[in-house]
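Students often ask why inverse folding is considered easier than folding. One informal answer: many sequences map to the same fold, so there is more than one right answer. In these notes we will look at a single instance of the problem. The structure comes first.
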C-alpha cells in the first residue's frame, strides 16, 4: 500500500505540474482573442494566422489540463446518484470506471492520435489557408500527450482508491489527503452537523 501511495503522489505531482504550467496559456489566449476582436471591430483587419493561433492555444490549454482537472475532481459527474452513495461505493465505482472505461479510452486515443500526428508530420500538413500556420502536426502532438496525462491522473486516483478501500486507517487517511485536502474534512463536518 505504501508503494501505491508513493506512486499516486508522484503521478499527481507530474500531472499537476503540467496542468498548472499549461494553465498559463490562458493569458496569451486572452490577449490573442482581445487583439483579434479589436483588430476586426475597429480596424476591419482579420488574420487567419491569429485565429489559428487562438485555437492552437485553446487546444494546448484544454488537452494538457484534462488530467489536472480530473485530479482536482473538477469534471462532470452524475451528482444525484453519486451523492446518495457511501464513500466505499463511490470509490468502488470510481475504480471500476477507471479500469474498464477511462484507461482503455485514453490508451485508444493515445494510439489513434499518435498515428494522426505521424501521418500529419509525414505529409508536411499545414493550414489549408495560404496565410495560416505551418506545421499542423505540432498542435496534433498535444492530443496524445493530453490523453497520456489523463491516464496518469487516472492511475493516481485508482491507486488512491485502492488504498482507501483496502489500506490501514493511517494509509486511508494519507490517501484521503492526497485526493483533496479539504474535501473529506468538509464532508465529515457536514455529516457531523446533521441531526
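Output (designed amino acids):
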Amino acid at each position: 500500500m505504501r508503494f501505491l501511495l508513493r506512486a499516486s503522489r508522484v503521478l499527481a505531482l507530474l500531472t499537476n505540474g503540467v496542468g498548472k504550467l499549461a494553465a498559463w496559456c490562458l493569458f496569451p489566449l486572452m490577449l490573442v482573442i482581445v487583439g483579434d476582436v479589436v483588430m476586426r471591430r475597429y480596424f476591419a483587419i482579420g488574420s487567419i494566422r491569429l485565429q489559428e493561433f487562438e485555437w492552437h492555444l485553446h487546444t494546448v490549454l484544454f488537452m494538457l489540463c484534462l488530467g489536472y482537472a480530473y485530479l482536482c475532481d473538477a469534471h462532470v459527474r452524475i451528482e444525484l446518484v453519486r451523492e446518495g452513495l457511501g464513500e466505499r461505493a463511490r470509490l468502488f465505482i470510481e475504480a471500476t470506471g477507471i479500469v474498464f472505461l477511462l484507461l482503455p479510452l485514453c490508451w485508444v486515443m493515445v494510439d489513434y492520435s499518435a498515428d494522426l500526428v505521424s501521418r500529419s508530420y509525414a505529409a508536411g500538413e499545414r493550414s489549408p489557408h495560404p496565410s495560416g500556420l505551418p506545421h499542423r502536426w505540432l498542435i496534433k502532438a498535444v492530443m496524445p500527450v493530453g490523453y497520456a496525462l489523463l491516464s496518469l491522473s487516472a492511475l493516481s486516483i485508482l491507486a488512491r482508491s485502492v488504498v482507501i478501500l483496502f489500506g490501514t486507517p493511517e494509509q486511508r487517511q494519507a490517501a484521503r489527503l492526497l485526493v483533496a485536502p479539504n474535501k473529506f474534512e468538509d464532508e465529515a463536518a457536514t455529516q457531523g452537523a446533521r441531526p
